[in-house]
Fold:
Amino acid sequence: MDLASRIARQFNDSAEAKRNAAELMTAGIAAAVTLMTECLLNNGKILACGNGGSAADAQHFAAELVNRFEMERPPLAAVALTTDSSTLTSIANDYRYEEVFSKQVQALARSGDVLLAISTSGNSPNVVEAIVAAHERETRVVALTGRGGGAIGGMLRDGDVHLCVPSERTARIQEVHLLTLHCLCDGIDCLLLGVEE
Structure:
């Protein structure tokens, strides 16, 4: 095996996945930026959830909003639903793992908030249930998926935004998810701070 060639192929495949995603996802990302910015300007908050690598992405996104991304600005209201081990384990133990996010959405979400629901496959049961809970709370959803969107793609409502990476490979989907999150952070900052460039 030529390890260097294999590594180079990973870089090339990632770049191609991002080019394909740019063609299909740019308008949706802009819509998500607008939705999230309006939420924040109206004293709402953004809740984020996902599993595994998507849990890390949810935490990354919330940290960029609460602290800062690339520009100085006041902290923004964002909460990752993946970080409170006592809450997660008590829900999983007393009820079932599928409810670890939905119960938090029921407790924290209000009308006008936004749920960032991240699922590489689009089929994560606990993310699906979080979306159901969000809809019950009149909370809009930005779904970040891949592989055609799975179950999540079919359950979104008018006013929600579906950002589906056009790929079947988990690694490529997750790489585009990270870039998408950075685009969301940058776009939110630009709208809030009036950046013209």
Notes: Residues 112 and 139 are 6 Å apart (CA to CA). The beta strands are 46-49, 78-80, 114-118, 140-146, 161-165.
